[in-house]
Design a protein that fits this description.
Layout (H helix, E strand, L loop, with lengths): L1 E7 L9 H14 L2 E7 L2 H13 L4 E6 L1 H11 L5 E6 L2
Parallel strand pairs: 1-2, 1-3, 3-4
Helix pairs in contact: 2-3
Length: 90
């Protein structure tokens, strides 16, 4: 398993507190799961991150945001073989 997490910070959304990101990174590292957490600041950046996740052979895409973010990222990633996880933040 390998997880690529995209967190929406566009549209006026604030970045998650650094201690929460650090705790999540630590938890994933301790589990031995290959992972990356990326903050997206625009819709276009989200598309580039989805492309990168596919290019770097991540098999699981986690989406952090509200319904708009989920809609956008799912549409950018459909058909690429990802398993999905949703982190509701909206």
């Amino acid at each position: 398993m390998s997880i690529f997490l995209i967190i929406n910070t566009w549209g006026g959304r604030r970045q998650p507190p650094e201690h929460l990101l650090r705790d999540l990174r630590d938890l994933l590292s301790q589990s031995g799961i290959r992972h990356e957490i990326a903050l997206s600041d625009t819709i276009g950046h989200s598309a580039a991150l989805v492309d990168r996740a596919a290019r770097e052979h991540f098999d699981t895409l986690w989406i952090g945001g509200g319904d708009g973010t989920i809609h956008v990222v799912l549409n950018q990633s459909v058909g690429r073989g990802f398993t999905y996880g949703i982190l509701p933040m909206g």
